[in-house]
């Protein structure tokens, strides 16, 4: 690595970030895309959430973006979506709606930063017809049991044949007592899985929202997305026992499929804001993930939609973060140490101890050859093992823009209530 060449390239590309002028410049680059991907370098940093929220508000209010899709479970996010849209029998306020995020790591979405955004979205939607209201949806795969519950609840009000079909499909899962690991071991090692049952059920629910009454269309869509989540979760837990790239790829391919279903629901001219970790929204082909046979949301969307995708990555030099020391452990506010020497974060800090914006379309091709470490903090974090938290990255190919925040602080969880779960695949 030529430090002098990288530093010269950074000096040419980097501009101060945080002013209205810098936000205007970034918005101007992102506003024409159909898919704007907003990353984060951790799941517990306040500024990653607040900056994404400000960008999202402007793209929604000024440029007509229709919904936000996040790295979260469909059922709990749909509860928040119902509140944001002011549906009958929705939660009384955003905090009450966020109570549905009751599985570890609760802080990812049940935090004050999301509470503020939810109230803004509710206010933005209040005078609009249902078809013009901005939505908030979760596109991840982990809600196996919760999605089954929601499907049965919805079908109890619909066609009895579909309800009986769902009950029959879910009987296959009953021996596993709502334990994902138990199901994964049985399905992977002993061939006792439920794949055929959930595929059949999904076929029954697919696109039924297109025939539903307008007042029930989104609930019918929710039933299908829950069925997709059951199918994705079944496949994910069946493969994760092997500890290879297959489970990661199943998860990200599922998120893209869920996203495309939402785009279909919102119409051919719909535009979406996607909130996920950098490891999902930054093109995997520009990292060492490619050599491990891994794909991700950013890569798949770029392959399908090209220039209609605009990916914005995030990073920080130092600060604090919310995370756990093991899966299901009590969440803690941890120190994020200064970035290691010659990482992207340290190089940007060396360029100036201030927030910075890099726009990658400025014609500087030197960075296209530079594979440099880029910090990624998951929900499980050990600051003392810092060197293992860096993903080798060609930053100019991984993102269309990069927001560097020199010093950041932990986000503000709404609750300390935690429950355990199966370890997720986030890096």
Automatic annotation (TrEMBL):
UniProt-listed InterPro entries? Emycin_Estase (IPR007815), Hydrolase/PRTase-associated (IPR052036), UCP036794_erythomycin (IPR014622)
User: Pfam families attached here?
Assistant: Erythro_esteras
Q: Where is coiled-coil annotated?
A: none
Signal peptide start and end residues: none
Query: What is this protein identified as?
Result: Protein-L-isoaspartate O-methyltransferase
What is the taxonomic lineage of the source species? Bacteria, Bacillati, Bacillota, Bacilli, Bacillales
């Amino acid at each position: 690595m030529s430090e002098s060449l990288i530093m010269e390239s950074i000096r040419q590309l980097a501009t101060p970030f945080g002013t209205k002028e810098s936000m205007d410049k970034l918005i101007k680059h992102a506003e024409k895309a159909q898919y704007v991907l907003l990353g984060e370098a951790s799941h517990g940093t306040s500024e990653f959430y607040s900056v994404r929220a400000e960008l999202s508000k402007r793209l929604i209010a000024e440029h007509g973006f229709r919904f936000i899709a996040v790295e979260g479970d469909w059922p709990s996010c749909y509860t928040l979506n119902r509140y944001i849209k002011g549906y009958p029998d929705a939660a009384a306020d955003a905090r009450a709606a966020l109570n549905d995020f009751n599985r570890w790591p609760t802080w990812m979405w049940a935090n004050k930063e999301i509470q503020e955004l939810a109230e803004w979205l509710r206010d933005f939607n209040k005078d609009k017809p249902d078809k013009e209201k901005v939505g908030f949806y979760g596109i991840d795969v982990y809600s196996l049991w919760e999605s089954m519950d929601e499907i049965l609840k919805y079908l109890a009000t619909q066609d009895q044949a579909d309800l009986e079909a769902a009950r029959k499909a879910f009987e296959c899962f009953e021996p596993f007592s709502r334990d994902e690991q138990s199901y994964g071991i049985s399905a992977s090692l002993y061939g006792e899985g439920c794949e055929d049952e959930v595929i059949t059920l999904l076929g029954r629910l697919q696109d039924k929202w297109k025939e539903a009454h307008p007042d029930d269309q989104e609930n019918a869509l929710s039933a299908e997305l829950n069925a997709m989540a059951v199918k994705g979760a079944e496949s994910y837990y069946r493969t994760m026992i092997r500890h290879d790239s297959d489970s990661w790829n199943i998860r990200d391919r599922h998120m893209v499929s869920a996203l495309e279903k939402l785009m279909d629901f919102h119409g051919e001219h719909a535009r979406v804001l996607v909130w996920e970790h950098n490891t999902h929204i930054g093109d995997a082909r520009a990292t060492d993930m490619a050599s491990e046979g891994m794909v991700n949301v950013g890569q798949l969307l770029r392959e399908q939609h090209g220039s209609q995708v605009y990916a914005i990555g995030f990073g920080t030099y130092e600060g604090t973060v919310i995370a756990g020391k093991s899966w299901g452990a009590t969440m803690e506010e941890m120190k994020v140490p200064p970035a290691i020497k010659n990482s992207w974060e340290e190089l940007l800090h060396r360029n100036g101890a201030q927030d910075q914006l890099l726009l990658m379309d400025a014609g500087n091709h030197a960075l296209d050859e530079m594979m440099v470490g880029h910090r990624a903090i998951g929900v499980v974090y050990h600051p003392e093992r810092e060197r293992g938290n860096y993903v080798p990255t060609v930053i100019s190919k991984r993102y269309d823009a990069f927001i560097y925040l020199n010093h950041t602080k932990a986000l503000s969880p709404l609750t300390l209530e935690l429950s355990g779960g199966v370890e997720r695949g986030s890096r």
